[in-house]
From TrEMBL:
Belongs to the RNA methyltransferase TrmD family. This is tRNA (guanine-N(1)-)-methyltransferase. The gene is trmD. InterPro entries: Alpha/beta_knot_MTases (IPR029028), tRNA_m1G_MeTrfase_C_sf (IPR023148), tRNA_m1G_MeTrfase_TrmD (IPR002649), tRNA_m1G_MTases_N (IPR029026), tRNA_MeTrfase_TRMD/TRM10 (IPR016009). The keyword tRNA processing applies. Its EC number is 2.1.1.228.
Length: 235
């Protein structure tokens, strides 16, 4: 997988080289480039924003630097790129979307700041490449950078070969439509708190049943919206 990120804060992405993503890059499974939007400005102040037409608070990112930055990437695309603009006005990012995006060969992220990017940039991009607006949740961040780091971490770990033991991906929260069951490790007792007996039993069937029940109970309690219709508690 290849990804490109356009941002006015390239240093935000220095952390990508840590942990799993860094290992994936060194192993050759993933490659990326971070592009400074201000490299595509032509004034002394390297201006990227301006006041909104129609009035209102805040600043809007001007289209010209975005046009140039995206041309530099999309004029010479790797395969069939998918462009993602992180935005609180986008469709909500989920584990299912992470899985879908992990099968893409080229992702391009355009990080907006301020009140967003001039809509013509999105429209122009959508006319030349598959384009999506994606939100990581119903809250407002100062810009798309944190959203892109979060999305990349969720996406890249699903790229085949990135996580050593693919089985560890199967039982996670959201993969089975339920939240993950609680986990325990040694010691058997800690500060007077024992590990649930069944997990020490060696009875794989009983353990699987306990875990399923624990997943279901946890999901009912904190995320009833995730339950399949036949498990939904009646009001
Ligand atoms: N930019 C600002 N808020 C955001 C959000 N919730 N998701 C994605 N991008 C954003």
């Amino acid at each position: 997988m290849r990804f490109d990120v356009v941002t006015i804060f390239p240093e935000f992405f220095d952390t990508l080289d840590i942990s799993l993503l860094g290992r994936a890059r060194r192993g050759g499974t993933v490659s990326w480039a971070i592009h400074d939007l201000r490299d595509h400005t032509h004034d002394r102040h390297r201006t990227v924003d301006d006041t909104p037409y129609g009035g209102g608070a805040g600043m809007v990112m001007r289209p010209e630097p975005w046009g140039e930055a995206l041309d530099a990437i999309l004029d010479d695309p790797v395969d069939d790129p998918l462009v993602i603009f992180p935005s609180p006005a986008g469709e909500v990012f989920t584990q299912a979307m992470a899985r879908e995006l992990s099968a893409e060969s080229h992702l391009v992220f355009g990080c907006g700041r301020y009140e967003g990017i001039d809509q013509r940039v999105v429209d122009h991009t959508a006319a030349r490449a598959r384009t999506r607006l994606v939100s990581i949740g119903d809250y407002v961040l100062n810009g798309g950078e944190v959203a892109v780091v979060a999305m990349l971490e969720a996406i890249v770990r699903l790229v085949p070969g990135v996580v050593g033991n693919p089985e560890s991906l199967v039982e996670e929260s959201h993969e089975a439509g339920l939240l993950e069951y609680p986990s325990y490790t040694k010691p058997q007792e800690w500060r007077g708190l024992p590990v649930p007996e069944v997990l020490l039993s060696g009875n794989h069937r009983a353990i699987a049943e306990w875990r399923h029940r624990a997943s279901l109970e946890r999901t009912k309690r904190v995320r009833p919206d995730l339950l399949p219709p036949d498990e939904t508690p009646h009001a």
